[in-house]
Amino acid sequence: MQERVEGSSSMRMFGAVARALREAQGASRERFGEYVGYSASQVGMVERGERMPSAQFVARAGEFLNARVAIDAAAEHLERSPHPSWFGEYVDLEAEAVSVWSYDAHVIKGLVQTEGYARAVLGEYCPMLDDEEVESRVRARLARQKLLTRVPAVSLALVIEEWVLRRPVGGPVVAKGQLERLLELSELRNVSIQVMPMRYQGHAGFDGPFTLLETKQRQWVAYVEGQSYGFVIDDREEVGNFQQRYGMIRTQALTPSDSVKVIEQMAGEL
Q: What 3-state DSSP class applies to 64?
């Protein structure tokens, strides 16, 4: 897992409290991690103030350490981001990633969404978000896109299911604008966009969408997201399985040039 040296003072404070309580209990990071649902390396990142602890981490840490009052008090000072709590670690990794490769089967990846598309997606959230929360999340989503123009350039590879592109999210005007955005990105040398055709009877992506990230240290992690949760996977064997799967998905999808033709055709129909 990528080693990080930055982090807010509140994260470092929380981590120091958690570590002191863990060591006072005589518990190893491995044992503590098993209880809170983190790997030993991820526990270390929290304790060094390099990773924002999830709500689940806070709750289970308080139970394991028999110090719920102290842990909750420290957690109250954590400076939360505009992103959902379970998404914070991924956002941090994405911002510094050397490579971002994803397979998307539900909606177009937030990293490349237009403002209109992002607002339409977040506007459908259930339970419903209030207008202020929607706008906060839209701004946060768009802020992530500075990665696309960063120097040095990130290697961005997207494989998108055809039906995702055909769904008129936000209406015809918004949907067309999103398709045109993908066409603009496809012209960049560091970006590869491929379409997985609906006509295919099967392919290697049936287990669902996921993202692979390569860190500055040339280490790979996987990210999987579901209903109101998401988690980063750093186990080498598991990440290797995701890499193998993604390699197969890319070979099964249309080539980038053929994908551009399909997207152009869809945009022309709107």
A: helix
Taking CA atoms, 226 is separated from 88, 177, 208, 209, 264, in Å, by: 15, 26, 9, 9, 30
> What is residue 3's DSSP assignment?
-
**Looking at residue 160, which CATH number applies to its domain?**
3.30.870.10
> Residue 101 has what DSSP assignment?
E
Contact 144, 100 (CB under 8 A): no
Q: Kindly state whether residues 166 and 105 are assigned to the same domain.
A: yes
Same domain, 55 and 95: no
Domain that holds residue 92: 85-110+146-269
**The pLDDT of residue 82:** 67
Distance CA(102)–CA(156), nearest Å, equals: 8
Token readout for 158 is: 């997207």
Contact 238, 208 (CB under 8 A): no
Cα–Cα dist 213/239, whole Å: 10
Q: DSSP 3-state assignment of 132?
A: helix
Can you tell me the distance from the alpha carbon of 76 to that of 55, in angstroms, rounded to the nearest whole number?
Answer: 11
Say whether both 89 and 65 belong to one domain.
no
Mean pLDDT by runs of 10 across the 270 residues of the chain is 50 91 94 92 87 85 93 82 70 92 96 97 87 88 91 94 97 98 96 96 94 93 86 92 97 98 97
Q: 90 and 47 in one domain?
A: no
Tally of structural domains, the chain: 2
